[in-house]
Amino acid sequence: MTPNFSSDFFADNRRRLRELVKLDAPIVVTANGLLQRGGDSSFAFQQDASFWYLTGLSEPEIILVMGVSGDYLMVPPREAVREAFDGAVDFSELTKRSGIDVVYDLTSGWKQLRRQLQTAKRYATVAPNPPYVEFWGMYTNPARASLTEKIKEIASDSELYDIRKDIARLRMVKQASELRALQQAIDITIDSMTEASSLDKLAAYQYEYEFDAAIAYGFRKRGARGNAFEPIVASGKSGATIHSMLNNGPMKQGELIIVDVGAEYDGYCADITRTYSIGGQPSNRQQAIHAAVLEVQEYGYGLLKPGVLLREYEKQIETYMGEKLLELSLIKTADKESIRTYYPHACSHFLGLDPHDAGDYEQALLPGTVLTCEPGIYIPEEGIGVRTEDDLVITESGVEVLSARLPKTLM
Fold first, then answer.
1. I need a labelling partner for 219 at 20 to 30 A (CA). Which of 15, 20, 190, 237 fits?
2. 311-364: per-residue pLDDT in tens?
3. What was the pLDDT predicted at 279?
């Protein structure tokens, strides 16, 4: 059992979801499945965050059914050979972690669900994403689609109710135990970045991967599972690419390096970015760009509070960034297209079980919402990228910056 979360946490999340959905029908949520890496090996398993939020379980392929008369789990069988390699599923441990006493094999579980669907004619689930998301250029985990296809097979008349927005609203506002886990992930990230970015170590690194490895080592030795996402350690012109994740270029004197990393602790993710000067005093131009980014971030802090709509906040950030870009002589007019040439991303996103966590961007911010604030300026023609990112929580009156302990100086 993880130190921050007991079975009561997951049971209460299920209760709150039922109250929010208000549907006299089963709620069915699946774990992720393993994805093939090559031959008979899989990629490192990453659990579906919403399934974990409701169960605390980290095993693949399990299905949660929140029935009208009670909750149960469906667990697929494992061949003896697979058990020898991967281990057997401990049913008592599933119950202990999730607080769910009833565990069925797939045959018995689907028989139970079929009866409920025949009565209710409806079911609620996290609707599947398309198999391929063109915008991101990636394939999605097929577990949700497999679940809905199976339900259609056994109850073709059942109507799907999509709970994505409901569960996003629950996950958007963090509970005390979640905030503790997030702060631990953030503190591990801060301490590891501080250790790895000391002046003597910055002077000794020859390649980006050395910096990357030093931070990853710091995460593990401080108790984190590892990186919450693929780290970005990008210097010089590579830093002008927002998500440059090759992390293998040479670190050259006089250039800047963006370090965008986060530890994962107890399932929760930190996401912090700092920009450092490699090998001494940064140039006046580099300092001016860095100062502009910090000014935009401070402006963002002043805007964030309960009741704010993120879409309106982002428009205000964009306008203020336009003023900074004009001052830097990067643009001649502060129109959207010109601004987005050098500042092409949003300033804030939700943070929690996922680095870009679930949340409702149409809902006003509430106390307990955890966000990032990460303005940046990217100038490929000058070989300069600068980004500063901090993690914060909305309070009753404004924000508390959870990562404020990490310095923002270039050196």
1. 237
2. 999 999 999 999 999 999 999 999 999 999 999 999 999 999 999 999 999 999
3. 85
Q: What tokens were used for 243?
A: 């998500």
Provide the total of helices (H) and of strands (E) in the chain, helices listed first.
Answer: 13, 21
The residue type of 221 is K
pTM of the model: 0.95
Range list of H helices, 22-105: 49-55, 80-86, 91-98
Tens-place pLDDT, residues 33-73: 999 999 989 999 999 999 999 999 999 999 999 998 899 99
Token readout for 242 is 């927002």
Start-to-end CA span in the chain (Å): 41
How far is 252 from 276, CA to CA, in rounded Å? Answer: 12
Mean pLDDT computed over 163-192: 98
Q: Are residues 302 and 182 in the same domain?
A: yes
Q: Which of 170, 200, 221 is the last residue of a domain?
A: 170
What does DSSP say about strands 232-235 and 268-269: parallel, antiparallel, or unpaired?
Answer: unpaired
Nearest by Cα to 328 from 374, 354, 295:
295
Domain residue limits at 89: 7-170
